[in-house]
Each structure stands twice: as structure tokens, then as C-alpha cells.
Design brief:
single chain; alpha/beta; 3-stranded parallel β-sheet; 12 helices; binds glutamic acid
Length: 328
């Protein structure tokens, strides 16, 4: 993925904004998740838009109703509400199955038998999001080879992206914070997974189907997913949806540059709710990190709506450092 100044894009503005929360309930929300949720909510509300709640629980690890309940309770406590949902991805498998079938019927998918070890051993260059670029090892398998290999191992399913020389594999889009983006799918990600060999549908597929089916027009999330957006834009078009507009927001990191994670127990919502007692100082601290409040100001979610701007976020595209529970 590279920034480019060669092309001028303007973000589509003609669709009413529908944003979404798409949390994975694999643990309690931490400060970094709260920041992304706040920005997604402010971006939608400041544009007069609606919010959809979708629980991303495809993976066994995230199928935890108690975590999902706490997550929604924490968002309500923060004053970040939604108009539709919750939807649970674990209840939408038929839709994902149908989408894979539609792509397969057009000859766009193939079974892949590569093991994790084989993928690593192929020492492919890494894509912008840290995942490997698949080299197409299983692309040309004959029906007989597929039959033989299936005996010992169930295959994963990959979607075939256009060859590097094919202009339809060049994806360009405008990120509301990071500006114009372009990616040649064959070079920057390769044929990607739609379904894993254990039968679990891949994040890329589920997110595209859901955003399409739910009429989501604006996806606001952490910068770590910027590298997925070209794939999602392309897949969305393949499935007949109009891709959403993307806006990525800075990540919250520890002083050593490591991303905050659910392991940072001191920054999870249980602790934060106790420490702050009231959502205003917590939300204001997050908003101040991207220049939407002055230090000392205390604003609730609704009062922050008018402070939101993509310009403010673009000006803070670097990670936000958190030390001792405070944003620097
Ligand atoms: N469920 C993903 C996460 O919690 C977010 C997916 C998305 O926003 O597209 O990291």
C-alpha cells in the first residue's frame, strides 16, 4: 500500500452515513478499542449518520456472550449508542457460505492445501499488514490432485485476485484520514483466504458481506486495518456491493511502540470505569490526544460530536503513546 499524489480522489458524499461498531469480543475493551469506537461514533454522528452494532465472533476464541455483553455495556456507559443490532457473525454463516458459492460459481476461488509451515517456508514477501503474500502454490491443481489431497486434509478456500498486469487488480480509494491509497492486489496481498481449512470464514469475507448487507457506508477503525481496505474494496465490488468509504484512526501504543492489547490489564474498561468514575474525563482525554478538546475540558460523547473533524485526525496520523494510563 502506498500513498500517492498522482491521482486525485474525492470521497463519495452522496450516501447517507451508516457507520458501525465491529468489535471482536475476545476480552474486555481496552483504551485503544475505546478510542476507535469513539472516533467511529463521532464520525457517523457528526455526519448525521446511523450506527450499526455487529459482534465479530466467528472465531471460537471470541464466542463469549459475557464479553459481548460487557462490551456493549461499556459502550453504553460511555454514551456511544447504536440504532441497529446487535448482529452476531456466528449467526450469519449462511450469508458467508452463499457469498463464497457465488464467487466459486464464477471460477474465482480454488481450494488451498498449504499448511501454515509451508506458507512460512515459502518465505514470501510480507504484505503491508504483516501477513504473507500467497504465491499461488495451489492455484493450478488438477481435479485429481484436489481429490487426492482432500483425503488427508480439508482445504481452505482462496479467492483469485487479477494478475498484476490486469488493471482491474489496481485498487484505489480515498481514506478520510490517510488520503489517497492504491494497491495492486497481486503484488501487495495475493490470492487471499475466504475460508480457513477448519471451516471458519475469513475476516475479510465476513466483514465485506456484513458491511454490504447492512448498508454500511463508512468504516472507521484502527490504522492496523488500513492494509485490508484494498482487498475489502475489491471483494465488495466482486460481490455486487458498493464499497464503503474508509477512515483509519491512529493506534494507541505503549512507550516502546507496542500496540495496546487486551493483555494491558490496567487499561481495560473494568479498571478504567473504576478509575474515572464518569465517562467525561475518559472521553475527553482521548479526544484531547487528537486535538478535539483542550486539556482540562470535560466533554461527554454528545458534546464531542461538534468537535469531530477528519482534518484533526489527519493531522494526528502518528500513533498515540500511552504511559501509566495517560495519553502523551
Ligand atoms: N473485529 C475487528 C477488530 O476488533 C474489526 C474489524 C473491522 O473494523 O473491520 O479488530
Amino acid at each position: 500500500m502506498e500513498n500517492t499524489t498522482q491521482h486525485e480522489f474525492t470521497p463519495p458524499t452522496d450516501r447517507p452515513v451508516v457507520g458501525r461498531f465491529a468489535p471482536s469480543p475476545s476480552g474486555r475493551m481496552h483504551l485503544g478499542n475505546v478510542f476507535s469506537c469513539l472516533m467511529a461514533w463521532l464520525a457517523a454522528r457528526s455526519a448525521g449518520g446511523r450506527m450499526v452494532m455487529r459482534i465479530e465472533d466467528l472465531d471460537q476464541r471470541s464466542q463469549n456472550p459475557e464479553n459481548a455483553r460487557l462490551l456493549m455495556d461499556d459502550l453504553r456507559w460511555l454514551g456511544l449508542d447504536w440504532d441497529e443490532g446487535p448482529y452476531y457473525q456466528s449467526e450469519r454463516l449462511e450469508l458467508y457460505r452463499d457469498a463464497v458459492e457465488r464467487l466459486s460459481n464464477r471460477g474465482l476461488t480454488y481450494p488451498c492445501f498449504c499448511t501454515r509451515a509451508e506458507l512460512h517456508a515459502a518465505s514470501a514477501p510480507h504484505a503491508s499488514d504483516g501477513t504473507y503474500i500467497y504465491q499461488g502454490t495451489c492455484k493450478g491443481l488438477s481435479a485429481e490432485q484436489v481429490r487426492q489431497k482432500s483425503v488427508s486434509r480439508p482445504p481452505a478456500t482462496r479467492v483469485m485476485v487479477p494478475e498484476a498486469s490486469d488493471p482491474t487488480g489496481l485498487v484505489e480509494f480515498y481514506d478520510l484520514a490517510y488520503g489517497p491509497q492504491r494497491e495492486v492486489l497481486a503484488n501487495d496481498c495475493g490470492d487471499f483466504l475466504l475460508r480457513r481449512s477448519d471451516g471458519v470464514f475469513a475476516y475479510q469475507l465476513a466483514v465485506v458481506v456484513d458491511d454490504g448487507e447492512m448498508g454500511v457506508t463508512q468504516v472507521v477503525r484502527g490504522r492496523d486495518l488500513l492494509g485490508s481496505s484494498a482487498r475489502q474494496t475489491w471483494l465488495s465490488r466482486q460481490l455486487g456491493y458498493e464499497p464503503p468509504t474508509f477512515g483509519h484512526v491512529p493506534l494507541l501504543v505503549a512507550p516502546d511502540g507496542r500496540r495496546l492489547s487486551k493483555r494491558d490489564q490496567d487499561l481495560h474498561m473494568g479498571v478504567l470505569r473504576e478509575r474515572f468514575g464518569n465517562p467525561k474525563p475518559l472521553l475527553s482525554m482521548l479526544a484531547a490526544a487528537v486535538g478535539m478538546t483542550e486539556s482540562g475540558e470535560e466533554k461527554g460523547a454528545n458534546e464531542l460530536v461538534e468537535r469531530f473533524s477528519w482534518e484533526a485526525l489527519s493531522a494526528h496520523e502518528n500513533d498515540v503513546v500511552v504511559a501509566n494510563g495517560t495519553l502523551l
